[in-house]
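task queued by scheduler; priority normal; single chain, no ligands, no partner chains; default sampling; output format set to structure tokens
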Amino acid sequence: MAASENITSSEFIRHHLTNLTFGQHPDGSWGIAHSAAEAGQMGLMAVHLDSLFWSFLLGALFLWMFRSVAVRVTADTPGGLQNFCEWLCEFVDENVRGSFTAKNDLVAPMALTLFCWIFLMNLMDLIPVELIPRILQLFGVHYQKIVPTTDPNITFGLALSVFGLIIYYSIRVKSPLGFAAELTMHPFEAKNPLLKILFMPINFFLEFVSLISKPISHSLRLFGNMYAGEMIFILISLMYGTSVVLTLFGGVLQFVWAVFHILVITLQAFIFMVLAIVYMDMAHQHH
């Protein structure tokens, strides 16, 4: 679908923001939605096939790249890809050493996976908006979002995975009783036993809100920034095919935004990784 076709700008934007959705139709049958309205009617049991496909593909690309380097690693004449992977590992290791004060062999691999995987998913935003969807339309696929991090289901899935590790290590390191005390004995403290009991529900409410806000803010920060960037690319693409002047101006805008967006996609992957490290460090701290 191109901006030059007989569709309105809002229809063009809505089309490019609609996922390839699989779910249950109102008549009880299961299949792929043929419109945004059908996708909305499928409810919570719907699956975004495009987000899952591209995220799994990019995750597999990350694993294949690092494994191919690992099986051919050499100390004599390392190639460019090996130097790049070693630089990434050192970069992540320095951030883990600077933010994580406990000892846990899982944190560094987790941080490396998050950074590389999210960066690759964000990098898909630099592919022209209509390139892959246009190609897939030739095979009957009419909806395709190729940037997984513009889908809140993906970003929430990543954040909830980190949150699950936070809860697991909070209980493992501090014991269930210690973790419960952390949620009920702070920030308000008292030596009087009666006041302690009275402060418990207040402390729990405040600490529970703080705890739950971690995965919410963690996921929405990544989703919001990437969604806004994708929206700008879509708005710029509306200029193409309208006039020669607007087409040339749109091309310049797209190049400038793409160059700036390289910083955005890298920074968002870095922030997500750093927050995951910090949250894991908090889970290992004794109060």
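post-processing summary
- The chain has a mean pLDDT of 90.
- The first strand starts at residue 21 and ends at 24.
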